[in-house]
Amino acid sequence: TGVGKTELAKALADYLFDDENLLTRIDMSEYQEKHTVSRLVGAPPGYVGYDEGGQLTEAVRRKPYSVVLLDEIEKAHPDAFNILLQVLDDGRLTDNKGR
What we know:
Elements: H1 5-17, E1 23-27, H2 55-62, E2 67-71, H3 78-90
Parallel strand pairs: 1-2
C-alpha cells in the first residue's frame, strides 16, 4: 500500500490519452464473496439487476479508451480472477447481454 499505483495509473492515462481523468477505478475489495463477482459483468437473465449491466463491462463500454485500475485486487474472490484471465487471454470480455 502507498507505493503510488493510483498515481501511476493516472499518469498512464495522461500519457496515453492526454487526460488523467480517463481512468476507471474498480475497488476489487467489493468482490470478496462469490455471489458479488457477477456484478463485474452483470447479473444473468432473470436475476435482479440484469438490466443494469456489470460494473466493469459498463465502465469500459462507456469509456472504451481509458485505463482500468483494479484496486486492491488481492482481496477479490478467485472467481473474479477467472473473469479477468479471460480479458487478459482473449483481449475481450462479454457482458451478461452478450455485448
